[in-house]
Amino acid sequence: MKKTKRFRTLGKGSAMIEMTLILPLVVMLIIGVVEFSRVLMVKQVITNAAREGARAGAIRLDDSGALSTALSVSQNYLTSSGVSLDPATVNSSFVTTGGSSAVEVTISYDYNSTLSHWIPGIPGVLTLQSAAIMRREA
Q1: What residues make up the domain containing 37?
Q2: How far apart are the first and last CA of the chain?
Q3: What is the pTM for the complete model shown?
Q4: Total count of domains within the chain
């Protein structure tokens, strides 16, 4: 009987050692998945904001209000989606596409990664960019 009890005690100790070795890796993996998901969410939000801004500027008939409308709609979309405007640069301009006048909205967002402090090789700031062009309606 003493022999089986001894082996059970050794098994508990090895399980604790295995857990202390594996747990930090599992936690880092979970944090990495959450961080990667956040990057994808921010990328999708800036893509949608650029598209919404370009569309709002394209349906505006006068030149003076089209660009300012495109900017404000894009910025409002970003803030209402929970994305901060501080690291974002939003620009709107008129372009010609297919012989027609169009509104282009470009958004550049500097995403500050929380993993860059813990894992070497991950850049501290990821620059996410998105652009949308919509032909103006006459």
Answers
A1: 2-135
A2: 92
A3: 0.78
A4: 1
